[in-house]
Specification:
mainly beta, 7% helix, rod-shaped
């Protein structure tokens, strides 16, 4: 197995989950994905049937209800890392928030009709990244653009002469005595 293949749990709209391996990108072709399952077989899945694909640390196969352990689906406060704060509504009606990168890959993925790569609200959970196919999204909201705080720019030099410079230009010559 290539090191480019990562552990994933595919959640379908029917409610069942499929563990396996997928690359990080470029896996959706002709409205289908080819999932390498745990026994080494390649399973072809239609993208329309997939709710989301979670890239996970562990499979947690003993947990049948929530093996991806995606417990928190929204942010508790404004995220601190850079990205586009997005809120997705699935065809099933449930919500998911995540951070998408601030670059052209977001537009490229939507144009190519594949989907979105998101960072979940709780990065300490089992799920590290989420791929959401565009066909499973009914509503997409951009909540905020989060950037790193910029450094303060230095103030431009003042073109108005200061009064302090005038204090020393009209000094009395040292040999003269005042009355």
């Amino acid at each position: 197995m290539s090191s480019a293949h990562k552990k994933v749990i595919v959640r379908r709209f029917t409610g069942d989950t499929l563990p396996g391996y997928l690359p990080l990108s470029g896996f959706a072709r002709n409205r289908a994905i080819d999932l390498l399952d745990l026994s080494g077989r390649v399973i072809s899945l239609a993208v329309n049937d997939i709710k989301h694909i979670c890239y996970v640390r562990d499979y947690n196969l003993n947990d049948t209800a929530n093996p991806e352990r995606l417990t928190r689906r929204t942010f508790l406060a404004k995220p601190r890392t850079e990205g586009l704060w997005l809120r997705l509504t699935f065809r099933s009606g449930d919500l998911l928030e995540g951070l998408a990168p601030i670059d052209l890959t977001l537009a490229d993925d939507l144009i190519n009709d594949t989907g979105l790569q998101l960072t979940p609200p709780d990065v300490r959970s089992n799920t590290q990244r989420i791929f959401v196919p565009r066909t499973s999204i009914t509503d997409l909201q951009l909540l905020a653009v989060i950037t790193s705080p910029s450094r303060r720019k230095p103030l431009p030099a003042s073109s108005v002469p200061s009064l302090q410079e005038d204090l020393f230009t009209n000094l009395i010559p040292p040999n003269s005595r005042p009355n």
